Recover the amino acids of this structure.
């Protein structure tokens, strides 16, 4: 597909073409675009910032860690092997990174109208100064330009972090992690604030493969044996304390369902003993997880860590791809998710306590108007996380604001999460979010739902204040 | 949060900023804005209009009866006690109404972008002539201004009713109610049309606390003992007749699910006997309710009362709040609701009969395109109620029209319901609805989907004709 | 209801009134409006084009085959008998086609704001040259004008087909069909491309009335007895081959749920034997169908036929109407539909194979963002069918693009399907689709999400390229 070559990132992008809306959107955006980036939840590999080594090449920096990119190419019949995605079984994959980049360029038109296109245009243009659109014709030239930049000191990870104006960046680690990279960063004398988030899925999913190994590792980290449910909870307290001492302000759980239910200590221990023997099934895990969510809320009230829940993803839906390439390969598919009944046990016990901050996410947009906005608009403890994953996009975020604001207001939401593994896309994602929110607010102003002064307060809240407040940053 | 103080209620509010749309929206709105208000469903306390006493003070008039307001304040950690919400157990609550109003003013920014903000701006401005925005700084002054007005004869309930240009106002009463306030109003010689609606939930929910007391009261009202299912249905007939004689044109049921199923008389009686012994559970209640919906449809064909169903609310989701403060405290949370299978028994038996008018509501917006518009676009008996509760709002109503109109047309819908407990907000709510519908229609006109003449017919239908016709008013 | 009489079909219809959007929408539309119509899925009766006889009269051409029209009239209490809908039991119906048309005219206002109104305006204006709006006053005159045209050679079916610029038209036939009309068309020497699509529902629905008769017919067509599951699958292979030889490029299945599950041959045969004895129930049929979907995917990989699934319709929801009038009478009602879990077995086994093209449709719009776009944006075999049935409409298609594009891109979608029984409405439906897509793309251009060159590529893809490619036409 031929295309003109000039990459233009328009200064009014994502704003409504109506001039009344655009003018106000632009004005609001100008007021927030240079605010520091607060990234309270994400998946950047902390070793990047600990080691601070040059990124190896454009393909390994941009394509291979980003499942948004390679899953779209895969959906059109391009094999993951040919895209250099590492295999688990050591079977061969493409290692010619220029060739992979060429395939990317040849097929970049697949992303027309997607947020990946919008983010990458920003990354190419604003981060790497590229002036041509990516295509089959320009692929090698763009590869060269990025590759050259990556070798310069200005493109070392910490230099980029500083240039991106990141006030705080949160990574996510398992309960059994030793946080060595965070320690390295802390001890380095570099001023960048990189904190972790406590995500205990690996030790909570009692029927998952590898659970026992994770428990053993957890035991090693804690310095005591974990033979009972009591030990297990003690280990949680121990690790939460450790994560907190390393700067963590939050926990996170990726659960299939947000089901919550309090087990008796004795029933919880029965499940735990069953798990130690490797005899639990999916139903056991659901019960156990529902109970752990209750414990996590209790512990959050005690130690002040903000609690996050990311439910509703059918992880590794494509078994053949998982078997060959492992997790996070673009084949997690959302599930319908019910919150009203499922969260009731937790909210009835802990949701009236303003000391708890419970931030709930969803992949099921239907739940916003029907369940999540009403819940967040009532329970003091509950807040809504921003548009997540598949709807972390121009239309998706717009729908989010339209569905949530009227019932929950903006003050029961918590600003933006980039939630990304793709380090250089962080500014692009925050910029897109600030633009979409500015445009949403301009729609309110031009319809005389709020006035300009109110919109400015809301604009700053959405871009900066709410996230700092909700995550205690 | 500082804000400029002038309260401006723009004459073009809620209209699209595009000048072509706005011009037509405004023109359509001008044609309907002064039509009388027909309010076919709501929860205003009839004693207000029976007694016609001055409202006590701004806080007791505006804040305390309105769960839209206090639930949002509560969601941000402000206790219900401090807002003066009456406790059931007699434990203390704030009774300094000025202090409560100050809290309201201090936190009024929480409502930015919500319909409550839009309604209250209209109430303050159009009803009470307030010229400043509510805030911490202006709270006491606004309290004084409203309070003074409330003492004048122009602000007695009936005077407000007349000034609001209300053609008919419908309240909602239980089957066991004696309608004494409606009798007082009827006998008063005042011309205002205030009618009731028959809502038998209290005697249908056989496993709810207090059911037996409600049955005893129903028995007393009917003047015969209710010992069997046959007696129970006879009591229904009796009370429907009485309600009708007092002006009622409709019934209503607030059911968890719209499940319908016809029991044999014998099975229905078995459940009823079980209920008399206090031995029924949730599943029994669901069966019993499913059967009563069938009976209600049958009775509506006989006596001509319009049948309404409001399903899908998990009532009193927050048990601690319910235990302390009782029902209707902002903690009813919507549930996913299925209509296609659930309504089939009723629609197959009675839905082809044009003598029945069955008006169905939903809190689950997803059901509009998928189930409700297709059902209403086919069955002669079925009509769709307007956007309800959480989506009775600018964006919510807009989505409603966009999701419903293409499949069901506008003539299978029934105009607007304000459904409010907040008496002074009635004109604000109807005005907002008329504006949103005008704007929706202007979108059709400017896209040449309908022409201006067609839009005028539709506009009047949505504001006035449909509600009168559907509710036989 | 009085209305001005001139029928105006505006050249900018369905485009946003914002002039920036409208200008670009118009420009994109001009580039695709004259492209040939490729209709890869629909329900036109092939005998129309085989016989090529004049259509009998306006009512039998336009109203009686179109359940979109008569269901809306029925929903307002107009009986199907009075609209001339044929009864199954031979009980009388109206046969005065002028009288029926008068009823249609009298009630045409019911369609304000619906796609039926938009399509019919185009049919009346562009196909029949009518210059007045249909109403009670104009009904007879319009009847006369259309009736006269229908008698002229220019309005014979094949002449209309040619004038409509149809490159290919696909009809749908059961597995047991002899395709005699397709043979007549092929043998006629007329150049019009009319192909069939293999839809085996009649022989797959093992617990449906008439199943055994369909199997007997299938057996007759195949020339061998069908006594076992193996025979049954052999018959499938036989008929797919035959349909392919007659030009078919696709199969289709209308299933209640998209549940897929592979049975052992032995279990499949057990169900089949049970079915032969007439002993199967709904659960058996669900299992059997889930397994047949797996077989169909396997066979599609072998013979290259594109596989379509249309799930989620509760067929013949209105039993009394079905009993009297039969199927396809406007009383099929959508059901909530789950894809993530249900399609997993099929997608895990065959979804990674790019030789398979599986086109999935939905009536449950909620599944687009949550399930279908993520699935189509990952699995190489899966593509998304266009907005179907109730949301084959201006707002519905717009929502479809907004919900699908950001996650799946446009290249995992397959252009437009008119899916109609109403032959003269084909150009109207394609024109509407091209207008809505042009307007959607103009929204992307004006917000600088894509540029004009990219939009032109997308525009042509949506109107023409994707459908040809996906359906191998």
């Amino acid at each position: 597909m031929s295309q003109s070559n000039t990459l233009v990132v328009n200064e009014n992008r994502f704003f409504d073409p109506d001039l009344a809306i655009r003018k106000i959107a632009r004005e609001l955006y100008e007021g927030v675009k240079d605010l520091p980036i607060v990234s309270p939840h994400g998946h950047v590999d902390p070793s990047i910032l600990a080691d601070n080594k040059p990124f190896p090449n454009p393909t390994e920096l941009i394509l291979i860690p980003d499942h948004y990119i390679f899953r779209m190419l895969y959906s059109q019949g391009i094999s993951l092997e040919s895209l250099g995605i590492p295999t688990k079984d050591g079977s061969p994959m493409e290692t010619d990174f220029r060739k992979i980049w060429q395939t990317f360029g040849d097929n970049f038109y697949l992303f027309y109208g997607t947020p990946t296109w919008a983010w990458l245009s920003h990354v190419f243009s604003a981060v790497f100064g590229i002036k041509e659109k990516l295509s089959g014709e320009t692929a090698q030239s763009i590869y060269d330009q990025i590759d050259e930049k990556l070798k310069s000191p200005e493109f070392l990870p910490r230099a980029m972090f500083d240039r991106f104006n990141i006030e705080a960046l949160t990574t996510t680690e398992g309960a059994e992690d030793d946080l060595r990279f965070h320690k390295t960063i802390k001890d380095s004398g570099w001023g960048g604030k990189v904190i972790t988030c406590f995500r205990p899925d690996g030790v909570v999913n009692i029927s998952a493969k590898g659970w026992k190994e994770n428990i053993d590792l957890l035991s090693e980290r804690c310095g005591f044996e974990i033979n009972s449910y009591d030990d297990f909870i003690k280990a949680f307290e121990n690790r939460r304390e450790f994560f907190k001492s390393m700067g963590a302000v939050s926990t996170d759980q990726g659960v299939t369902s947000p089901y919550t239910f309090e087990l008796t200590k004795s029933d919880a221990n029965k499940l735990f003993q069953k798990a130690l023997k490797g005899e639990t099934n999916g139903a056991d895990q659901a019960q156990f997880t529902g109970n752990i969510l209750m414990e996590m809320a209790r512990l959050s009230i005690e130690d002040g860590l903000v609690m996050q829940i990311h439910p509703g993803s059918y992880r590794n839906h494509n078994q053949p791809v998982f078997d060959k390439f492992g997790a996070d390969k673009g084949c997690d598919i959302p599930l319908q998710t019910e919150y009203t009944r499922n969260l009731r046990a937790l909210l009835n016990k802990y949701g009236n306590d303003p000391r708890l901050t419970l931030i709930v996410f969803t992949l099921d947009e239907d739940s916003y108007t029907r369940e999540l906005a009403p819940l967040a608009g009532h329970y003091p403890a509950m807040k809504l996380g921003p548009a997540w994953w598949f709807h972390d996009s121009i239309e998706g975020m717009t729908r989010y604001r339209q569905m949530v604001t009227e019932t929950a207001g903006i003050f029961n939401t918590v600003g933006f999460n980039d939630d990304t593994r793709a380090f250089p896309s962080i500014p692009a994602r925050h910029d897109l979010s600030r633009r979409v929110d500015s445009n949403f607010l301009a729609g309110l102003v031009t319809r005389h739902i709020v006035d300009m002064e109110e919109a400015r307060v809301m604009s700053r809240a959405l871009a900066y204040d709410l996230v700092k407040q909700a995550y205690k940053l």
Summary: Residues 228 and 273 of chain A are 7 Å apart (CA to CA). The first helix of chain A runs from residue 19 to 32. The mean pLDDT of chain A is 97. Chain A touches chain B through 46 residues (CB under 8 Å).
